[in-house]
Amino acid sequence: MLGAAVYEKLADILVNHFQVDRSAISPDATFEDLEMDSLFLVELLLVVEKELGVKVDDDAATPRDTIGRAAEVIAAQADAAAAS
């Protein structure tokens, strides 16, 4: 799964499931910038798993991580799952 496609899907999830303003979303924005904490990240990863079928470890992202980095981690997990 390409990182750019995952980034777009992640942005869609943030907008549609968590009512984040799309203009606030960028690859360099952190979850802290969006006022989202570690509990939010657990919830986000559950939605990602449901929407994308990708299991991501709860500790794979922190509030200080950027949305772009989270998309890379999710894409890497998807690629690893597809390869196994």
From TrEMBL:
Keyword vocabulary terms for this entry: Cytoplasm, Fatty acid biosynthesis, Fatty acid metabolism, Lipid biosynthesis, Lipid metabolism, Phosphopantetheine, Phosphoprotein
Coarse class of the protein's main subcellular location: cytoplasm
Subcellular location: Cytoplasm
Keyword Acyltransferase carried by entry: no
Modified residues (O-(pantetheine 4'-phosphoryl)serine): 38
Molecular function, one GO term: acyl carrier activity
Pathway(s) per entry: Lipid metabolism; fatty acid biosynthesis
PTM comment, free text: 4'-phosphopantetheine is transferred from CoA to a specific serine of apo-ACP by AcpS. This modification is essential for activity because fatty acids are bound in thioester linkage to the sulfhydryl of the prosthetic group.
Protein known as: Acyl carrier protein
Source organism of the structure: Streptomyces actinomycinicus
